[in-house]
Amino acid sequence: MLLSTLLPVVDDLARELPEFERYRRLLSALRSLIPCDAVALLRLDGAQLIPLAVEGLSDDTLGRRFRIDEHPRLAALLERRGPMRFSADCGLPDPYDGLIDAPRSALEVHDCVGCPLYIDDQPWGLVTLDALDPTHFRPRDLDNLEAFARLMAAAMKTMERLGALIRRADDEHLWAERYRQLAGHAAAPELIGHSAAHKRLLSEIDVVAASDLTVLISGETGVGKELVAQAIHARSLRAQRPLVSLNCAALPEALVESELFGHVRGAFSGAVSERSGKFELADGGTLFLDEVGELPLSVQAKLLRVLQSGQLQRLGSDREHRVDVRIIAATNRHLAEEVRSARFRADLYHRLSMYPLRVPPLRERGRDVLSLAGNFLEQNRSRLRIRSLRLTTEVQAALLTHDWPGNVRELEHMIGRAALKARAQCGDASRVVSIELGHLDLPAARQAQPAKREAAPAAMPGVELRTAVDDYQRQLISAALQRAHGSLAAAARELGLDRANLHRLVSRLGMGRSASVGNER
Fold first, then answer.
1. Tens of pLDDT, residues 132-178
2. In this structure, are residues 435 and 389 in contact, taking their beta carbons and an 8 Å threshold?
3. pLDDT confidence bin for 182, thresholds 50/70/90
4. Mean pLDDT of the chain
5. Beta carbons within 8 Å of 511's beta carbon, 6+ residues apart
6. Residues contacting 445, CB < 8 A, separation 6+
7. Residue 130 C-alpha from the chain's centroid
8. DSSP class of residue 364?
């Protein structure tokens, strides 16, 4: 049994697979060797453990970050060199309580084993297996886990070496900078998500980061444009130098020029001493101009001059100062339309948009909303000192169908409010606290929920499994298309599917006409 499980893992080492798929296949092989309710692979990153792949746990687990000092079971596993089983009466809280996909009556984990992964004699991460049956695991399971963990560590080491060889084809300095970040010497911002739209964004960031091009980041309010700017800087050759930020919309017009270019003593009333502007502070590094579309026209002309010549004059001075600064700008406006309306200079627009980068809204990122929610859940769990904080199945469905006009910022605030309400209602922080639909500020989702429960398929005697599954899929797809007003693309995002795959599924189920899927906007 052990050998037959290990052989496909060895075969996968010679295949070109995406990292996430490779991790998933490792966990599937482990779960076939040691059957259990849930399994997870976590990578050690400083003082926290980051889930790389999970099976049997809720989707939001991938977005959580488990601080080691707040999860004593994970800390205990990292202190060992071999597998460890926690007894059913162990008093240490389990980090996965409430996260296993199981009926509402069984939320807490009762049998847990885990094993650390070591690479070059250094802790790399953990693999954990959990079961709801307190007597599920046997002594031979620990032996098998130890053997599998060694192979898994070897696979991780091989993957890292292959990745290093690929990266060496890039610029050597940039490769060394990324290695420095991965080694923990610099905290690069983490952009969470696994959707196709998010992966395209990450790919664009990697492409432009290696250059010195000016970047114009566009996107709706709350999508995380500043995080994208930080990620570009952290991956650039200027990462050792400062990243200076200026919110152009937060300053009165009279102070914008002074903030950008600095001033000398006596330049204006209240200028009692010389002061460097943001350009000089960012010399050698990156200047992030947030809400650049709010700059007054008078300041736009001076900004253009600095971008073209690399020279500036402090307010009230004739002396030239030379600066070497990369500009990353961001806006939620359509600057091309602002140019046509004469509210933004065309020459500055073209100078800023040497590399335009669009950050997709949350509604286009499919199931990323659950990964992001998991990250915010873990933050609130720690802040509110809750043992475990989870989303019910109804809440997860509501999050997936919401339009998110405020994007990631709206999700963050909504999870924070809901966590506070759920904590107050529960009253006992030592229990698993579940966020219910009523804790969210989503009246439309609450009204739609009874209809969803009524639409759940009933068990019909004598019906084949394939027929029942097909019928249930038809119900889910029809409901998603109805909420998306017939848009196949929008329904695919809600269901977490590629649009082409959903189109093929609709055709196989014979829904082409009744579902009105012709509108694929």
1. 888 899 999 999 999 888 888 887 787 777 666 655 544 444 444 44
2. yes
3. very low
4. 83
5. 474, 477, 478, 517
6. 397, 398, 401, 402, 437
7. 25
8. G
| Contact of 286 with 329, CB cutoff 8 Å | no
* Buried-state track 277-296, b at ≥16 Cβ within 10 A, e below 16: bbbbebbebbbbbbbbbbbe
Residue 4 — very low, low, confident or very high, per pLDDT cuts 50/70/90?
A: low
Instruction: Please write down the long-range contacts of 27-30, taking CB distance under 8 Å and 24 or more positions apart.
Output: 27/53, 27/54, 27/55, 27/127, 28/55, 29/5, 29/148, 30/5, 30/127, 30/129, 30/145, 30/148, 30/152
Strands (E), 18-110: 38-45, 48-55, 66-67, 84-86
Residue 214 has a pLDDT of: 95
Angstrom distance (rounded) from CA 76 to CA 382: 19
Cβ burial of 392 (10 Å; 0-12, 13-18, 19+) is middle
Residue 186 confidence class, pLDDT cut points 50, 70, 90: very low
Q: Report the C-alpha gap between 189 and 199 in whole angstroms.
A: 15
Alpha-carbon distance of 391 to 397, in angstroms, equals: 10
Gap between the Cα atoms of 129 and 520, Å rounded:
42
| Model confidence band, residue 25 (pLDDT cutoffs 50, 70, 90) | confident
Q: Where are the beta strands (DSSP E) in 260-354?
A: 286-290, 311-313, 320-322, 326-331
What pLDDT is recorded for position 372?
Answer: 95
- Residue 45 has φ and ψ, to the nearest 5°, of -135, 90
pLDDT at 497: 75
Return the pLDDT at 175: 40
For residue 160, the tally of other CB atoms under 10 A from its CB is 14
Q: At what angle do helices 393-401 and 443-454 cross, to 10 degrees?
A: 120
The letter for the amino acid at 234 is: A
Least confident of 21-30, 74-83, 304-313, 506-515: 506-515
What tokens does 63 get? Answer: 């977005």
